[in-house]
Amino acid sequence: MLTVAEAAAKAAARAAAQSSALAEIGRAAAVGARQALMATRQQLDVLAASGVVDAAGAGLCVVLDALNTAISGTQPGAFAVPEPAAARGAGAASAAASPFSYEVTFLLDAAQEAVAALWDRLDALGDSLVVSGRDAQWHVHVGDAGAVIEGTLAAGQLSKITITYLNQMQASIPAGQSAPPSRVVAVAEGPGLTGLLRAAGATAVDLQPGIDPGVVLDELAMSPGPAVMLAPAGFVAGRWPPGWPVLEVECLIQSLAALAVHEPGRDQDADLGAMRTAVAGMRWASLSLAQDAMPARRPDTWLLVGRVAGQVAVCGADQAAVAIALSEQLLAADPEMITLVTGRAAEPELGAAVAGQVAARAPGVEVVCYDGGMTSAVLLIGAE
Questions:
Q1: What SS3 state is found at 320?
Q2: What tens digit of pLDDT does each residue of 160-184 get?
Q3: Quick count: other Cβ atoms within 10 Å of Cβ 82?
Q4: What's this model's pTM, rounded to 2 decimal places?
Q5: CB under 8 Å to 322, separation ≥6 — which residues?
Q6: SS3 state of residue 372
Q7: What CATH number does the domain containing 241 carry?
Q8: 189 in the same domain as 152
Q9: Which residues span the domain enclosing 50?
């Protein structure tokens, strides 16, 4: 990376000696970095053997291209990371297939010592191993589903076991053709949140109150596929479009975490594993109106219920006070980022009040706030 950075600096200095135009200097830096990156293949034996370039240097090229675009206002062509030598040969089609052909999920009732030993055993067998949700559901991608079940039975009592074949789409691709880009269809609620999901690369469906979920699913099934379905847990279970993998979220704000790591050009199995890990890594809280208080006419008399991971944590009548109490509980886990999504019933300054308190309590935590427009919640909070 330092070699690429030095080359970019020297190229920029040469351009500056000939022209004062910032756009020309930025372009020279980007081009100089690309040329230096190509040379990294010969600078390290491990890179020469595989035919790849230095990853950190490639990342710097991407940054310099983005800077060049921002300066010049044009995009002459984004940097493309060169393919590994192995991917350019006759075996390219088979290289794209994942060796982990099955996704196994289950619930486990076992002693803590057995759980620790099982984690090590499954981690060695497969990939994308996570434990998520209130019920501690296990997910793992493996080549031998039977070995997972046998190993887990030795640790404790199993329930709700599912085994999904992941490579069906890859197996149906004709030889010599590449897999289609990974696609995500997200079910959301509220125009703001739906817009955020679309901006993040998903085909988002706004499930407004009164809309029949079955009709939505029927429409999705007719869209080009397959795709990863990103939806709230229990959303018309059993009626997913055929062949679509499903990633269920406990809270809609977790969909933002999933799409933050979504890469359309990546193999769908790997993309699904990355999104699942991101969802499992986001703690969440929600602020909503109590159902029995909905008929109240004055907002200050509504009873507010705050939940952390679905469990009631705090109640009150003041939106800011309850929301701040929820954020304090999430900050106890020392997150790096807090995301706030306000609903339609949120007071105008609710997001700013919570963001200000987080900034005062934990100055190093990044805070972002969006207007989601949901009717099902006053506020959603995500901590990563």
A1: helix
A2: 787 765 554 444 444 444 555 677 8
A3: 15
A4: 0.54
A5: 287, 304, 306, 314, 315, 316
A6: strand
A7: 3.40.50.510
A8: no
A9: 2-85
